[in-house]
Design a protein that fits this description.
The protein has a single domain, classed as 3-Layer(aba) Sandwich (Rossmann fold). Strands 2-3-1-4-5 form a five-stranded parallel beta sheet, sandwiched between helices. Helices cover 54% and strands 12% of the residues. It contains eight helices and five strands, in the order βαβαααβαβααβα. It has 205 residues and is an alpha/beta fold.
């Protein structure tokens, strides 16, 4: 048993779908750590870079990062290099977590990084736009119009980041083991459903 790989649940999510809340509920029910912002701290600690640098780049990648070639840095693509190096560091942190413990990992291409590991369940959580819009508006105290703008912008950043580093398609069902609409069962029900799925798949007892 000591040599067996520990189960990892990777959670991708649309902004406003409640994916982070579902992940936290899964972690609570299973008694395992949930890594989201914590990954930023761990990556910063392992690399010596500031936490602020990782937070600035977290799940974001500019479509125009090659413009740094034409900046005042004499043709050196600093932003491009930084993004790739930071991704490598964060990937190492994710692989290290997966070697040491069972965990739930939110976003950050963890499904791709751990694709050859085995004993991982890759989940994508979505919800209808009107549900997400209302949730984001209430959570952030903004209008529904502003909430929809934030949803569109955040999802676009996540999609660009994921597609660039994985050569895949963010949110496409074929990339995941399970895709769930969180509005049907709610946060707790969705978490319970995912755990049940993992158990039937033989990942959890």
């Amino acid at each position: 048993m000591k040599n067996e790989k520990k189960p990892i649940i990777n959670v991708g999510r649309q902004f406003g779908s409640g994916g982070r809340l579902v992940a936290l509920e899964i972690g609570k029910r299973l008694g395992v750590n949930v890594y989201d912002n914590e990954l930023i701290s761990k990556a910063a600690e392992s690399s010596g870079f500031s936490r602020e640098l990782f937070r600035e780049k977290d799940e974001k990648r500019s479509l125009f990062s090659f413009s740094s070639f034409f900046s005042t840095h004499f043709g050196q693509p600093e932003n491009y290099v930084n993004e790739n190096e930071l991704f490598k560091i964060q990937s190492s942190v994710i692989m290290d977590i997966a070697e040491k413990e069972s965990a739930v990992i939110i976003g950050r291409c963890a499904d791709y990084i751990l694709r050859d590991r085995g004993m991982t369940l890759d989940v994508f959580i979505s919800a209808p736009l009107d549900v997400r819009r209302t949730r984001v508006a209430e959570r952030l105290g903004v209008s529904e119009e502003k909430a929809e703008e934030l949803i569109s912008r955040t999802d676009r950043k996540r999609e660009t980041y994921y597609n660039y580093f994985t050569f895949g398609n963010w949110g496409m069902a074929s990339n995941y083991d399970l895709c769930v609409d969180s509005s049907i069962l709610g946060i707790e029900g969705t978490a319970e459903f995912i755990i049940g799925f993992a158990r039937q798949a033989g990942m959890l007892k």
